[in-house]
Amino acid sequence: MTFAVWVLLAVAEVLTLDRKGARGEVRFDHTAHVKASTKTPCVSCHHTRTERGTPQLAPCAACHLAEGDPKNPASKTSFDELHRTRAFHDQCIGCHITAVKGPRACVECHATERKP
Ligand code: HEC
Ligand code: HEC
Ligand code: HEC
Ligand code: HEC
């Protein structure tokens, strides 16, 4: 029984990110990523609105909306919109490039094309 509960909890730590677009689901092992990040693990991804302080655990797409939505936050460096696909790509691929570890090619994250 204890083992079964543990397995359920462990499985729930792997998230399936899917904005229902053309590129299908993205598997995200949350537990492994928390273990891999050493400094300020939560806020390094769950950043606050204006600074990297207290973690705010709202889904990314609560603030990073569809491409072209005027409510999207603007990038401080390039002043263009941080829509949700870009927010995910900048954070996920950005860290994989910096870390020189983790997938950077489309098919490594987007394992399947969505079936029509
Ligand atoms: C490190 C993992 C990662 C890599 C590499 C990556 N993506 Fe994504 N991508 C995501 C995540 C996470 C999302 C947001 C969740 C979702 O919508 O599936 C996303 C969303 C998208 C979306 C919008 C949603 C959809 O399914 O249509 C498109 C289009 C997309 N990616 C295309 C690409 C293309 C093209 C490449 C290669 C140039 C690429 N991605 C590489 C993780 C990745
Ligand atoms: C490497 C990046 C990263 C780190 C580090 C990280 N998270 Fe997350 N977390 C995410 C992403 C991405 C999601 C999915 C957000 C979404 O659905 O839009 C998420 C989702 C969550 C959720 C919602 C889970 C669900 O089932 O939807 C909670 C709660 C959470 N994180 C808590 C934490 C806590 C607490 C920490 C620190 C111990 C942490 N996270 C560290 C990236 C991260
Ligand atoms: C409460 C609103 C909110 C939530 C939730 C949120 N963001 Fe953001 N994000 C912003 C705003 C606003 C900016 C513009 C820069 C700033 O003001 O810090 C931003 C900037 C960014 C940037 C570019 C600059 C930087 O600081 O790295 C990335 C990448 C990003 N967000 C990814 C994410 C991801 C991935 C998640 C979910 C784990 C997320 N955001 C959750 C509001 C939010
Ligand atoms: C703070 C840095 C960081 C961020 C942000 C990050 N990753 Fe990673 N990721 C890593 C590292 C480091 C590895 C390599 C782990 C290893 O090989 O031990 C990795 C490995 C992976 C892997 C291959 C291993 C596995 O779990 O299957 C996938 C897939 C992946 N990341 C997806 C994502 C997605 C999707 C996001 C955004 C939602 C993301 N990552 C955000 C650092 C990060």
Key words describing this protein structure:
116 residues, mainly alpha, Cytochrome C3, two-stranded antiparallel sheet, 4 helices, 2 strands, 33% helix, globular, disordered N terminus, binds heme C
Quick take:
By secondary structure, the chain is mainly α. The chain is built from 4 helices and 2 strands. It has one domain (2-109): Cytochrome C3.
How many domain modules? Answer: 1
User: What ligands can be seen in this structure?
Assistant: heme C
Average pLDDT, rounded to a whole number, is: 81
Q: Report the β-strand fraction as a percent range.
A: 5-15%
**Rounded radius of gyration (Å):** 16 Å
Helix percent band: 25-40%
The CATH homologous superfamily is termed: Cytochrome C3
Strand order of the largest sheet: 1-2
Protein structure class: mainly alpha
Order of helices and strands: HEEHHH
- Count of alpha/pi helices: 4
- Flag low-confidence runs: 1-11
Could you say what the CATH architecture is? Alpha-Beta Complex
* CATH domain fold name: Cytochrome C3
Largest sheet: 2 strands, antiparallel
Textual characterization of the structure:
The protein contains four helices and two strands. It has helices at residues 2-12, 30-36, 84-99, 106-109; strands at 14-17, 26-29. Strands 1-2 form a two-stranded antiparallel ribbon. The chain is globular. One heme C (HEC) binds next to β2, α2 and α3.
